[in-house]
Amino acid sequence: MHNLVDFIQRYNHWFIFLLLEVISLVLLFQYNSYQGSVWFSSANAISGQLLSWNAEVESFFSLSKANQELTQRNLYLEQQVRMLSDQLTDASHDSGWAHRDELALLRNIKLIPAKVVGNSLNRHDNLITIDKGEADGVRKDMGVVCGSGVVGIVYLASAHYAVVIPVLNNESNISCRIRGRGYFGYLHWNGGDTRLAYVEDVPRHARFRLYDDVETSGYSSVFPPGILVGKIMHVYNSVDGVSYRLQVRLSTDFGRLRDVCVVDNAPMMEQLNALRAAQDSLRPKEGH
Question: What is the DSSP string of the chain?
């Protein structure tokens, strides 16, 4: 305390000078319109710049949340566009009930947003680690998707993290169909280019074109129907010559993968079973 008093006494003339300067500036800007307008404009410019910087910082830290929301929104819009396109194509057929059931299925799907915290690309058994686990509702065998398409399937889940087998893994085996054509096959990756995979076992009588879209079939509890997989780039014969092997350019860029969603398949499985039962009941019975 003694040192503080001594410091004030030693430099009291400076404190008096600063106080008088502040009083004079207040009087100058308060009672002179021109100087007041200059001060007001300068203060506004400075405060505006500070607010702008603050907004930019807040915007930067909110990008993560925005990316998660866009990822989920893209998934819903992609499926809705696909279903509407199918309805237009099949307008002359009585298939509206199936599309309505698929739309209802889509609305009840729960998506769990997550971030990729680990990702390998240069191996045959690539794995992805995400920052959500059992505490967030993630379970083994749930599908994982992003805003541009399919990612993979949950292999293991701990309390707060999960390991995903992506499309870029030799063990991956995802049921797919050619969009608007209805022909099915299974997606495999054989190593090499991370943007290319193959759909195996497409029947020889299938009719399709290059650049047709390939999507998830929906005939499993892992993925809902209509999640984009990629585009057909080339057609080969299978090894045994009884089916086609389609080269597909994947819609998901695994090298830039950051935000994903885990598909909660519990309600989807229940409704999928109901949809299959309805389809079976509408098929002609043998002997009729």
Answer: -HHHHHHHHHTHHHHHHHHHHHHHHHHHHHH-HHHHHHHHHHHHHHHHHHHHHHHHHHHHHHHHHHHHHHHHHHHHHHHHHHHHHHHHHTTTSS-HHHHHHHHHHHHT-EEEEEEEEEE--SSTB--EEES--GGGT--TT-EEEETTEEEEEEEEE-SS-EEEEESSBTT--EEEEETTT--EEEEE--SS-TTEEEEEEEETT----TT-EEEE---SSSS-TT-EEEEEEEEEE-TTSSEEEEEEEESS-GGG--EEEEEE-HHHHHHHHHHHHHHHHHSPPTT-
